Structures are given as C-alpha cells and as structure tokens.
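This part of the workshop introduces the protein records we will be handling. A record pairs a protein's sequence with a compact description of its fold. Comparing a sequence with its tokens is the quickest way to learn the format. The record below serves as our worked example for the rest of this section:
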Amino acid sequence: MKTTTIPRPPRVGLVSLGCPKNLVDSERIMTKLRSDGYDMSADYAGADVVLVNTCGFLDSAKEESLSAIGEAIAENGRVVVTGCMGKEAEVIRERFPQVLAITGAHQYEQVVEAVHEAAPPAASPFTDLVPESGLKLTPRHFSYLKISEGCNHRCAFCIIPQLRGDLASRRPDAILREAEKLIAAGTRELLVISQDTSAYGLDLKHARYTWKGREVRAHMTDLARELGLLGAWVRLHYVYPYPHVDSVIPLMAEGLVLPYLDIPFQHASPRVLRAMKRPANEAKVLQRLRAWRAEVPDMAIRSSFVVGFPGETEEDFRYLLGWLEEAQLDRVGAFRFEPVEGASANALPDQVPEEVKTERYERLMELSARISATKLAAKVGKTIDVIVDAVDVESGGATGRSKADAPEIDGEVLLRDAGHLEPGDIVSVIVEDADDHDLYGALTAPAQAVPERSIAG
C-alpha cells in the first residue's frame, strides 16, 4: 500500500522584547505564521529561523536588543529582525551583517515575507486549512492583486488618504510571490489594483529587491514586466498618466501586459481640474493617447468622470464633452458629484443643482455610448481572444470578456455554441455583431485547456 509522507512544517523561534505593544505585534506575527503552517520552536536549536522583535525606546533597550540579536546569531545563525529598532537598520547591519532581513514596527506583511524567504512554508493539502493562494471571493480564473495602500494625492472630493494614509507600497518580491501562487491555483487573469498604480514604489525610493536570482525595482514598469512573464493576462487599473507610463506601452506591444489602461481622469476642464486639486494637462494627455495608440492600435482606455462638481459651468461641461469626442475613450463611467464627509470640496461655492447634475450625467453617458457603439462596430468580422467567465450548458452559450474588458465594469462577449467551455478558458472568437457595450461571436478554434501550473523554484 502506498503511503503519503506529510512534510514537517518549518519552525520559528521568537524573541520578543520591549513593551506590551511589541508583545501584541509578536502575537499577530505568530498568528499569521501559524495560519501559514509554521510551528513555533521553544529553543534556538529546533528553529529553522529565529525572529527577534526589538525595542528601541531607550539606549539600554537598544543594547538589550542588539545583545538578543547577537545571541540568536550565535545559537542559530538564521535571524530576522523586526520591531522599533528596525528603523536603525544600518546600526544592526554594521554589527551583524549576517542578519537575513530587517523590518520596522507594525510591518507585519514584510516580517512574514522575510520568514517565508528564510524558511519557505511546507504547503500540504493534508494539513493546511487554507489553500496556499488564500481564500478568494472572485471566480478561480481571475484575481485582484493589490500592490500598495494609501495615496499621496489630496483631491478635493476624496478622503482616501484620511482613511488609508499615504502611499505604502508592497515589496515587488512579495507581490510576485503572491501572483505566482494565484496562477498556480488557477488564476489566468491578474487585475493590478491600488489607489495610484503609477506611483508604485515611490515611497520605497524604487529600491531593488531580489526575485528569481535577479534584481527587480519597486517600480511600475519593472513590476508589470515581471508579472507579464508569469504567463497570465495582466490588467492595469488606476493608472495616473505620469510620463513613465510611456515605458509600459512597449510591454503591451510585446504581449506581456494587456493593451488596457484604466486612467481616472475625473474631468477635462482645466478650471474644474484645478478646483479638484488634480493635474490640469488635458491637452498633453491627448497627444500621449495618440502616441500610445500608434504603438498599440488595439489599446483600450477606460476612465471615470465626475459631473456637477462645485463650480462646474455649462462651458466646463461642454469642454469635457469636446475632449471626450477627441479622446475617443473605449469605456467611460460617470458619477454625479456627492459630498463626502471630510472632503474639502463640500465647502466650495457654487454647488450644482441636482437636476443639472442628472441632465449632464445623461448627456455624457449618451455620448460615451455612441463612441462605444462605433468602436465596437469596427470589431465586427475581426478575431479576438476571449476569457470565459460563465457557461450556460442548457442554452449552449457562454459569456466572456475580451482584452478590452475588465470584469463587472466593462462590456462582455456573448458566445453561441460554446456550452462545452469552462470558466477560465481563453478562446479565439470571430466577432459577429455588436451593440453599445457588448460583442457577440462564435469560436474559431478549440478552447485552450487551463494548463497545469506549479510554482517555479
């Protein structure tokens, strides 16, 4: 009879110093590590890695922390340092250059990632309560991938910085490791999200990290390229049109990143943009859109706009409509301005009446539907790739999305004679018809089966 050997989980030793707040931090780290399948070790000898949670409040506490680090290195040799003294990493490195990683206080994710790096968890379907890719609320074949928290912008209508703080980027190696696990578990489309994807890594000063034996900057371009190399569709959301976004366009031309950008323009009138405390360079943006489309003709650009912002005149709104006529955005969403508690826009004069907001909203959506219908009609007769989201076996139909469509916010591709497909299949489709927002088509080739994937070492 064949037996299965269950791998021994790696063990972590923990030294927790300082105040009760540090103790709570240690408890949180332990809880996360235990949920990841780690065992805790009561001594140095039995640990695969030792975590030292330091205190740095007083000089005497710093000396105690340095002494604890030295003891852990002498007794075990594989040490990760966290806690308050992490902000003095150069002091620790100078005395103990062999320390594996140093993180600051409250940096729970970075601590756990450092432990994962030092002693990779032994994933086992026989003992793990949670799959290695984590629990998901989306279908198996697509996943949202958050690359940062917070935002450095101070838009007049938004309170995100008050709720989530300033930009706090994740390390690129941590993001790529998560993406790799998701793909191994069946994800075929990664949707990159943050409050400002273009600003990714700015707070980390675009530092370089090691991934698969090579250096990767904490920068939007490097991250997009590395994600593209993992083999799934990569879709970029919430991209501000900073100059360095130009360097992402070649990745689309190469097929590493989907030819799709979600750019939150919000408005086009320079006067309204200034009132919103947003960049007012709409003319230059139009030039760049033309350049991007010249390099990647099938690029899809979606955006969202606010109508009825305080002080918006009929002239401002007509300027926006004219800009949209020239920009020819593929997907457009709009929102009537609503006061948000704590937002500075609430105090602005010349609030726009609700009936005017509604009338302008309807005009904008009518224009965007007309532009969309024209652009989609031009796709009739062409062959496109479609990722399948749902299959109706009884009717024999299926619903999917093209590379120009993000789930739930954009259009769909409705397929006939496709009841044999499975969600996550990527198929070649001939477009037979179109309406204002959706395409209709049929398969031109057999479905590509979802490949068996494993995490590369």
The longest helix spans residues 354-377. Residues 190 and 234 are 5 Å apart (CA to CA). The chain has three domains: 11-118, 142-378, 382-443.
